Structure formats: C-alpha cells, structure tokens
Amino acid sequence: MDIIRSDTDYALRALAHLALHKDNGPIAAKALASAEDIPEDFIYKLLRSLTKAGLVESYMGAQGGFALARDPSKVTLLEAVEAIQGPITVRKCLLGKDSACPRHQTCPLSAKLEGLQCAVDQFMTKITLSEILESLKS
Amino acid sequence: MDIIRSDTDYALRALAHLALHKDNGPIAAKALASAEDIPEDFIYKLLRSLTKAGLVESYMGAQGGFALARDPSKVTLLEAVEAIQGPITVRKCLLGKDSACPRHQTCPLSAKLEGLQCAVDQFMTKITLSEILESLKS
DNA sequence: TCGATATTGGACTAAAATTATCCAACTTTG
DNA sequence: CAAAGTTGGATAATTTTAGTCCAATATCGA
User: Fold this and answer.
1) Residues of chain A with pLDDT under 70
2) What is the pTM of this model?
C-alpha cells in the first residue's frame, strides 16, 4: 500500500511546477496538466483542493490560472499531502476524537504506534517544497 | 488513510493473544476470534497469511490450532504488518523493481521520500511483539 | 475405524475508496 | 459580447478492502 496516493502525487507535481514558474504569472490548469502528465479533467479537482487548503491561489477568467499562495519554502510536504488525502494516520483510533475503539485505553498497540505517527508527521513537516526543488537543480 | 489496515489490526491482536498464551498449547481459530472480537470466518484467512509468513505455526485436526512460531521478542511489527498487507511503500516508484515511473530518475520527490521510507521501516522493525505486550502489564 | 474437531484453499460477494470523466454555471479579460 | 478560464457537483469505472461460504483434508481420541 502506498502512503502517498497517486492523486496526491499529481498534486505534488503540480505544486512543483507552480513553484518553478512562480514568476511567470498564473498558469492555466490545462497547461499544467499537459506539462506534468496529469489527466486534464482531473487536475481541476486537485487544484480546487489545493486552493481550498490555501496552498494555491486561483484567478478566474481569461488569462487566469493558478499560482502558489506563498513562497515554496513555506509549503511543507505534510500540508500538501493532507490537502489532498486528508491526515495520514497510522491507525484511526490514534486520532483520539471519534476514537470509537472501545479497546483504546488498554490497547498495547496504540502506545507504540503513537511514536510512529509522530515520526511520520515530523518528517513530512520538515520537508518543504523548495527543498524538493533543490534536488532538481543538481 | 490508515497505514495499518483493519485486517492487519485484527492480525496484530491475534498475535498478541497467541504471545500471551504461548505456553498453553495451540489455540483454535474459533477461540481466538471470540476472545479478540475478530469475525470468525475472517480470522482463518488472516491466520493462514501469518502461517505462510512463518510467524505462526498451525496444527491441524482435533485439539489443533495456532501457536507463535518463535519467541515474541523475535517478531517485529514490520514482519507482522507485511505478512498481511504486503510492504508499506511511501510511493510505489520507490520500490525500484517495477519502477514503471519514467520520471523516476529525475524525480525530485523520490530523493526526499526515500528518507521517509527508511524511517518508517526502521521504526517498525524496532518494535517487537514482546515490547507491545509489555505496555499491557503496566 | 469412525466421528468429532480443526485447518486449508479457493471461490464468491458486498461495500467502500480511488481515480477519474463530464457538463452546466459563473467570472474575467480584451 | 466572445473567448479563455475556473467552480461545483453529478456520475461512472476500477480497484481495494473486508467479509462470507463451502468442500476438502488432517488429526485426535474413543
């Protein structure tokens, strides 16, 4: 199983593209799709999610398109991933909230898995969009 | 999305149960299922996977059942999880093998994600079944 | 040896999530 | 006003997950 789904992968590519061309004004979804091999009809849905999440800004109308809402160094991998596929949980019951699991309190697994949850979140928070781009240059 | 699926969760509970009662001889699937709230018809499938993976030994016939194949301290969380849901990959293209992704070589994401992959694997290898049980005692 | 107790293996199904596709409505630019 | 573009939602195809069922096989004990 993949932790990062393919729609999220598309979105990350789109973000990287926007970051690379951030000084050229908004980029139309159509152009983005063809540049990054993303199904054209699908990218609208992804871009809308990214917009809702505040990672991207949209400009309607002719000459419109999409642009990053902030500097690439301020966009974390975790944010981007969660914008598309929601929070990555090791196991739902760890979310606490609607921890419908009646075993949670005494569950020996929960204790250990919380550590993994932290590690994953921290790791993905540390990586920024600009860092991802850097490995492109070299 | 959960990294650990619910069938895997069932399997982990089953393993924990077997570990706790490892000196009482083989435990029948039926008994295991009712003790751990696992659908009875489903547990056979899980136990077979665990048996195939070499984590559990099965004893056919009357008075038969299942028992851990090794000491709980020799069973890692990663093994158990992979026995049920296969390898956990951050992203398929990282597997290298059938890395059908034509972008892999130049993909700026891959480089970063490999680190996450390592972190997850290492974390799950460090945790053993006996460690999981310890948090039960306290 | 027979019958009861178990596992084995695989076919089958139901439900949910993922991965799209399509289209009518709306907005902006020129 | 027309062209270029986004918005939002309905719908559909595919895959994965989760679960069910049953006939075949193996072993124990009387």
Assistant:
1) 93-108, 135-138
2) 0.89
